[in-house]
Amino acid sequence: MVKLNKIYTRTGDDGTTGLVDGSRVAKHDPRMAAIGDVDEANSAIGVAIAAIGGGYPADLLETVQNDLFDLGADLATPGEDFTPGEMALRIVPAQVTRIEAAIDEANAGLEPLRSFILPGGSAHAAAIHLARAITRRAERTAVAASREVSLNPQALAYLNRLSDLLFVLAREANLDRGGDVLWKPGANR
């Protein structure tokens, strides 16, 4: 269990931060950039939950927020063994599969896309779209970091599926507004 009595430690004043194994890396390290972007995505999902209120899909997104904390811990754990353990919190295939099942369930009630859609509509759809865009950035940053350090492939898959989930949840949120806000190519020339 995490226990934080003191919020500041001064250990990062030299521009470094600690990883799970106790090693230190620069705060601008690609691994830390990925962790920061995942944290930002998690915060954006929190804004979406606040816009939605309770019930579905807020409950699902709260589960995702917990998963994203797991994912951040995974990214902060160096090594090439991605087996979860006592001291290694890792994203596992079941978490990715759960996201895929949620995508399939949400997508089942949607009409097939016939156009690109604009990231808007209702307030909570727009908030979900913003979380989706930030999640896509987190995925790009994590993929870039994985070119320099070993990262759990399941963590990368989770981020990829999460942006898809957020896309279909935003579409679903706009059903009560008459559907998606469609892109009209060249409409303002």
Q: Secondary structure elements and their pairing?
A:
Layout: E1 16-18, E2 24-26, H1 30-52, H2 58-75, H3 93-108, H4 123-146, H5 153-173
Antiparallel strand pairs: 1-2
Helix pairs in contact: 1-2, 1-4, 3-5, 4-5
How would you characterize this protein structure?
It is built from 5 helices and 2 strands. The radius of gyration is 18 Å and the shape is elongated. The model has no long low-confidence stretch (mean pLDDT 94). With 189 residues, the protein is mostly helical. The protein has a two-stranded antiparallel ribbon with strand order 1-2. Helix 4 (123-146) runs antiparallel to helix 5. It has a single domain, classed as Up-down Bundle (Hypothetical Protein Ta1238, Chain: A), CATH 1.20.1200.10.
Features:
single chain; 189 residues; mainly alpha; Hypothetical Protein Ta1238, Chain: A; two-stranded antiparallel ribbon; 5 helices; 3% strand; elongated
> Level of helix content?
40-55%
Q: What is the 3D form?
A: elongated
Strand order of the largest sheet: 1-2
* Major sheet attributes: 2 strands, antiparallel
Encode the helix/strand succession as letters. Answer: EEHHHHH
| Architecture (CATH level 2) name | Up-down Bundle
**Strand tally, please?**
2
* CATH fourth-tier homologous superfamily: Cobalamin adenosyltransferase-like
Mean pLDDT: 94
Query: Looking at CATH, which topology would you report?
Result: Hypothetical Protein Ta1238, Chain: A
The Cα radius of gyration reads: 18 Å
First-to-last CA distance: 57 Å
Structural class: mainly alpha
Name the assembly state. Answer: single chain
CATH class: Mainly Alpha
Parts with pLDDT < 50 across at least 5 consecutive residues: none
Q: How many domains, in number, for the residues?
A: 1
Portion in strands: under 5%
Q: How many H/I helices?
A: 5
